[in-house]
Design a protein that fits this description.
Blueprint: H1 8-19, H2 25-44, H3 55-69, H4 73-92, H5 111-114, H6 122-135, H7 140-151, H8 155-159, E1 166-167, E2 172-175, E3 193-196, H9 199-212, E4 227-228, E5 231-232, H10 235-245, H11 281-294, H12 299-306
Helix pairs in contact: 1-2, 2-4, 6-7, 7-9, 7-11
Amino acid sequence: MNLEPIDPETALDLYLADRETEVSQATLYSHSSHLGHFLRWCDQEHIENLNDLSGRQLHLYRLWRRNEGDLRPVSEKTQMDTLRVFIRWLESIEGVERDLSTKVQSPSIAPTESARDVMLDDEHAESVLTYLEKYEYATLAHVSIALVWHTMMRIGAVHALDVDDYHSDDQYVVVSHRPETGMPIKNKERGERMVALSDQIYELLDDWIADRRPSVCDDHGRQPLLATPNGGVCKSVLRYYVYQWTRPCTHGEPCPHDRDSSECPATDRDHASSCPSSVSPHVIQRGSITHYLHRDMPARVVSDRANVS
């Protein structure tokens, strides 16, 4: 097989450009983030031509990433699976040896290992929200986490809300697909809906808008509901808030992993997700769905609110 030399940075740029029309922006961002670690490793190992990449090097990368990122098995599997897709694409453009993708190994996940990634349980959620309501009331972190839990919306839908989408008098928000302003939502027009709010959330949003929300617009003239002094908040920041506040040590709970907080890497801002007890926004949504189903909310109502089957 005649390989054509290609450096890691060029390969990733071409890969993302090729996938841009096939996958959602969220997936594209996820692949870019995961493969960014691979580029760092290539730079560290002085790998300038992917033609020379071997199965042994891919294994060394897996070990490096596991240790460097303090990854849980679920996260390691996700990142290695993304790398396999990337390597398979490189095979198609003659950038690496044929069948190299079959040498990308990822861990097998036992049900017990992935169980906490299925949903956030009621007790954990209640502990987080009780703490935020007492000590961080109506902050951006409190509002965003409370919205995801109480409405069952995805973080993308929460992120896409404008101030005008909130109807205080009637206690509901309107979720709209607005890709022209950089605010797409999953399922596009099929994801557009009205979501009723509880008294607790409506009061929280009223207080956020009246007292804490910065009076700002974004580059499209929107007034994002979730905002910072610099404009609309990034989804990555909202994800960080979830990882940050679902760590037990941040809301007054003892560490269930017997870690010393002065030495624990998960206390660092950039590594909050490495805490074995922290969860992603998706896990909060799944936990919320389960919570309301257990409280006998009709399945059709849950499905409509969360925009899931």
